[in-house]
Amino acid sequence: MKMPGQFLFGSPIFANGADRDIPANESTIVMLASSSDNLAAEPKVVRAALNSTEVCWSGRLLLLALNCVPMTHVLIVVGLLVIRHGGWPARIGAGLAALYLLPPLMARLILFPGTFPQGRFAIGSRPFFRWWSLFQLQIIFCRLPALEEILRLVPGLYSFWLRLWGARIGRLTYWSPGTTITDRSFLAIGNDVVFGAGVRLNAHVLAKNQDGQMQLILAPVNVGDRAIVGGYSLLTAGTMISPGEITRACLLSPPFSVWKDGKRIKHGEEFE
Fold it and tell me: By residue range, what is the domain housing residue 47?
């Protein structure tokens, strides 16, 4: 059984595919554009948040070490291609395995035993560092989107790869060119869903709380069966697209918004 405030990874998709059992209470959430639609600005926002909060030096050193994960990943892939440990087919195969399979396998270890708390977390907290670890494992695919576009050339392969990260993806999902996902483990997508060109799925937001302190808002993006998401839209933490919904292009969905019958219902979630 899934506990409130937790996201269960890799569970099957049924009915609308979004597993909508999370209570919603109205509240106002301020979303910083720089923390959701600009990947390059993300580390700067985090550093600014660390400077504004009391984070111990060990936490700062841990953040610095995690920031080296993308370069380490690249060096492993290049090393497997360059070092002579067999013929070129074996070296290319090892390099591709390290490129595409190593990150989701590492993500599964971070997500073990299968649940991850969702809600609002202080910068420098344990859930924050777990999420930041997952984020760094995905950086290479965010920086080089062509790596994912190659997977999308083979029907069903990209959805299968996302499931390795812990995402819940239904059958016959269509990913248009330019679709960007920053939190691959926090997706709940139904059957027969279509994403327009340039859609961004961003299951996290860095925003200020009522005390003016930066916090991480983290919740899965939910899209129901047969929904169509208009091109160049941004779906942020906790967004729910109802089954059969067709959203307009360039849609900006703040955290915990529910879209149904062409209308947006503002919802917030209270996490103790």
Answer: 10-266
131 belongs to a structural domain: yes
Q: Is residue 76 part of a domain?
A: yes
- Tell me the pLDDT of the chain averaged across its residues: 84
pLDDT of 179 higher than 90: yes
Question: How many distinct structural domains can be found in the chain?
Answer: 1
Read off the tokens for 207.
Answer: 């925003």
Per residue, the 3-state secondary structure of 23-87, as one string, reads CCECCCCCCCHHHCCCHHHHHHHHHHHHHHCCCCHHHHHHHHHHCCHHHHHHHHHHHHHHCCCCC
Q: Report whether 192 contacts 159 (CB < 8 A).
A: no
Check pLDDT > 70 for residue 25. no
Alpha-carbon distance of 29 to 269, in angstroms, equals 10
* Residue 162, SS3 per DSSP: helix
Residue 51 lies in a domain: yes
- Determine, yes or no, domain membership for 65: yes
* CB-side neighbour CA atoms (13 Å) of 33: 1
Residues contacting residue 249 through CB under 8 Å, at least 6 positions apart: 196, 230, 231, 232, 233
Residue 141 confidence (pLDDT): 97
pTM of the model: 0.81
3-state DSSP call for residue 181? strand
* SS3 assignment for 73-137: HHHHHHHHHHCCCCCHHHHHHHHHHHHHCHHHHHHHHHHCCCEEECEEEECCCHHHHHHHHHHHH
